[in-house]
Amino acid sequence: MLKFINSASWALILAIFVYVVLTPKALVAGRTISDIVNKSIIKTIKVDNDEIIDCYDMFKQPSLNHPSLHNHTIQMRPSTYPKNIKVDNPGTLQVTQTWHKYGTCPHGTIPIRRNVEKHYYSTLLRKQRRPKIIHNKKSNILQPNGIRDNHEYAIIKVPGSFIGAQAKINLWNPTVETMIEMSVSQIWVMAGDDSDLNTIEAGWAVDPTNFGDYQTRFFIMWTSDAYQHSCINLRCPGFVQTSPDIAFGCNFTEVSTFNGDQKDATFSIHKDQNSGNWWVQLQDISLGYYPSSIFTLLSKTSDRVEFGGEIYNGRYNGRHTTTQMGNGHFPSEGGLGISSYFSHVQVINENNEAKDPEDVKTYISNPDCYDLKVDKKHTNGYGFYYGGSGYNDNCQ
Ligand SMILES: *[C@@H]1O[C@H](CO)[C@@H](O)[C@H](O)[C@H]1NC(C)=O
Ligand SMILES: *[C@@H]1O[C@H](CO)[C@@H](O)[C@H](O)[C@H]1NC(C)=O
Ligand SMILES: *[C@@H]1O[C@H](CO)[C@@H](O)[C@H](O)[C@H]1NC(C)=O
């Protein structure tokens, strides 16, 4: 994920905040849904003022407005699954979302979480700023116009021609210091460099710019032009959803506790060998897919896969942010329950076989701020511990 906001943007945020809070609700742009969109909404489920789920007719879902999908035939389920997937169980998490208590989306519809008004500042902000991005091949850090990059990573990189990746990711609710920072833990399926970088991403995020709060939320993301255009969840056309049960952008109903109950969930991305579509799965639920045709390089295979954590360091108080990665604890402090983990990390090779990753390289942008340690014991498949506190004596 990416975020490019400098301190000058605070003025804009403030202005929009004032606008949103002080403007009568009826005048706030985007609050009502246009008639055309309305026609494809079959049912609306209201959780509270911050969470509204619209059940869209699957065959009129907004994603089908993508230019390459005008005559798209929806694939209802994957026709191939990777072989040799390591599953003891898909994760300790029951896949329930808060809105399930208030209703279900009928067969043939898909749930889309509505952007409620308090999120509009971020939409506006994003429209204001879309800097050009350079993908630095050596460091693999994305830099806006050569400005010192404020994204920090603790990740593993697995080079190779893959058609998928999966991992069980420990769920936490890290502290994010300011509303324009973020902390994410995710999988990246990638191809290309520089301006032709293609990615498919899935994981969890605390990302107030996108979601308007500090909860741990499920997200997917893609780009086919090195983030000049990138899209989270179903905010723009691309991802074709088929599941009536899971909405992107919802929170996880349970997260882990330090030294206590550990919660995790299996996230997976795999390319259907017949259709070429990239399916995304949470636990054992197939959610839908990114059609092969919306990509350039990823219409074929990836050339690497990455797993781990990323934060955005806003440096707003003249020092490193206290935004945490993972659960805010370093792998050096301890393993299970102490620091956060990825387990059952697997890549899917071109023969559609799931394998433990090989030739793994770690990339840790600043180990004094956030670190990563591969778990050599391999009891839960290939895995690693990662995370950190951000600002401390050695991370200024
Ligand atoms: C759609 O339009 C109908 C009729 O105008 C209205 O009653 C309903 O509330 C609208 N639904 C949404 C989700 O805006
Ligand atoms: C749309 O798809 C149908 C069925 O595959 C095909 O017959 C038709 O020619 C297509 N139309 C366009 C405009 O591509
Ligand atoms: C998820 O959101 C609901 C309300 O929308 C809230 O009641 C619940 O506490 C949240 N779960 C977590 C783990 O924060």
From TrEMBL:
InterPro entries for the chain: Glutamic_endopeptidase (IPR053168), Neprosin (IPR004314), Neprosin_propep (IPR025521)
The Neprosin PEP catalytic domain, residue ranges: 143-396
Source species: Papaver atlanticum
Species lineage: Eukaryota, Viridiplantae, Streptophyta, Embryophyta, Tracheophyta
Name this protein carries in UniProt: Neprosin PEP catalytic domain-containing protein
